[in-house]
Amino acid sequence: MPSHSESVSRLGLRSPVIQAPMAGGGDTAALVAAVNEAGGLGFVGAAYLTDAQIRERARDIRSRTALPFGINLFAPTPEPPPVPPAVLAEALARVAPFHAELGLPEPEAPAYAGDGFGRQFAALLDSGAAFYSVTFGLPPADSVAAAKARGMRVLGTATTVAEAVALERAGVDAVVAQGSEAGGHRGSFIGDPAANLVGTMALVPLVADAVGVPVIASGGIMDGRGIAAALALGAAAVQMGTVFLTTGEAGIPEAHKAAILAAGEQMAGEAAAGEERTRVTRAFSGRPARGIVNRFMDMVEDPQAPGAVLPFPLQNTLTRPLRTAAGKAGRAEFLSLWAGQGLQMARRLPAGELVAELLRGTEAARRGLAG
Ligand SMILES: Cc1cc2nc3c(=O)[nH]c(=O)nc-3n(C[C@H](O)[C@H](O)[C@H](O)COP(=O)(O)O)c2cc1C
Description:
With about 375 residues, this protein is α/β, with parallel strands linked by helices. The protein has helices spanning about 5-10, 30-35, 50-65, 85-100, 115-125, 140-150, 160-170, 200-210, 225-230, 240-245, 255-265, 295-300, 315-330, 350-370; strands at about 15-20, 45, 70-75, 130-135, 155-160, 175-180, 185, 215-220, 235-240, 280, 290.
């Protein structure tokens, strides 16, 4: 296995810290630029952006930093199978009371809008990004070839060894090993995603042993101790999401930031384990994703009354008006409060200071181990 510093330079990174792509607005141009300027690698989660929005975001980033950045897409999404009318009716009925509570019109049956991957990828190719990453599947072969022809590094997300091996065969330059602690969507694409809940501690060394390309550890890493641990497990770098959500530059609603920070503040005086505050749910998008448990999650994905969640991306389309309105109204109980299991370690900091602290903390942890 190449040494950690060989892998870092092989990937064109300046440090092991990668700010995770976070589709949905978390990863603003200001966040990406601040992370870059402080020595990390900033990423844009562009899955929900149009091609024009991707071009605009990339322009905005380039106007703030000359350093390399990455863009992430969801692998092409096939049309979901037809939804039985009873499931559709139940899905609409489950969401309707929340619409009423927020003064929105009745929810409408969502339609599959087609797959925008081709147009998004064309914008990515022209964006000036140095890294192209994919989650939810393999990057299409022609996209790997086209990105590499432009000198981009290609990354893919795996939640199991089988997915990591498949990604390596597809030609990625590095595998992001996403443990089950991770906030946001699970990148799983082989087998049942609900059965793929391998933690970062087990997944990273398994993947490092199974593939020849560098491994990027992701999930539950919140400080220098976590980064040093990931490097010890065989990772070349780490991809961190939740810790960046409470920086000033993160573009999520303030109610989401407050919910993450509250988890840490409440923990001090409470017996309930903080990690119970998050759960993997399909309630918001139809795909498993980890977020802080709230009323919407409990009622839509009620284990006593299952069968009310549409397949991705239909559930995502169904719940979008509600999430948008809830963000504006500051109503955390209806928001997808994506966060990983390490959320109690989140702190409110400017992103540049956070990266500097993470790098210092990593060195301190490594020195401590060596000593
Ligand atoms: C709000 C949020 C949005 C995310 N969106 C994406 C995304 O668009 N693409 C992606 O590959 N990963 C996404 N992730 C997952 C991250 O890449 C990463 O695996 C995860 O944040 C790591 O766990 P941590 O949150 O405990 O650091 C998202 C995570 C969060 C918290």
